[in-house]
Amino acid sequence: MMGNNVTNENKLTGRIIKVSKAGWGFISSREIEFTRIFFHWTSLQQDTLGFKELKTGMHVEFTPLQVDGKGYRAIHVRVIPKQDKESTNREDTPDMPTLQE
User: Fold this and answer.
1) Is 69 left (phi over 0), alpha (psi -120 to 50) or beta?
2) Which letter does DSSP use for residue 93 in this model?
3) Domain CATH for 73
4) Is residue 65 assigned to a domain?
5) Residue 45: is it exposed, middle or buried by C-beta count within 10 angstroms (0-12/13-18/19+)?
């Protein structure tokens, strides 16, 4: 039996490229090139930022789900710290990311 099984092994990373006040947005990911991946506010994990706190350019981890006739949709979306090579070289960078309020 075939289906859209979702497992934690399918997690990808990407960046938010659009956030709508209507409660949806799009993610871009290097693993799925040339594709805008849709997400809905209900796809956010409860242990991450709220939808109203999301901003374009934020890095996220998500599970892609291919929907017939509609393309990709992101589920289990969680904001993650920016993965930047320069920040790992700085000694004053803390191990744990901090969120500015």
Assistant:
1) left
2) S
3) 2.40.50.140
4) yes
5) middle
Q: How many CA atoms lie within 13 A of 68 on its CB side?
A: 2
CB 10 within 8 A of CB 63: yes
> Residues 30-85: pLDDT tens digits?
999 999 999 999 999 999 999 999 999 999 999 999 999 999 999 999 999 876 55
- Give Cβ neighbours of residue 14 (< 8 Å, ≥ 6 apart): 27, 28, 29, 30, 31, 37, 59, 60, 62, 74
In a domain, residue 7? The reply is no
Domain total in the chain: 1
The DSSP bridge partners found for residue 64 are 74
Nearest to 52 by CA among 28, 73, 25, 34: 25
Contact between 72 and 38 under an 8 Å Cβ cutoff? The reply is: yes
Q: What's the whole-model pTM score? A: 0.73
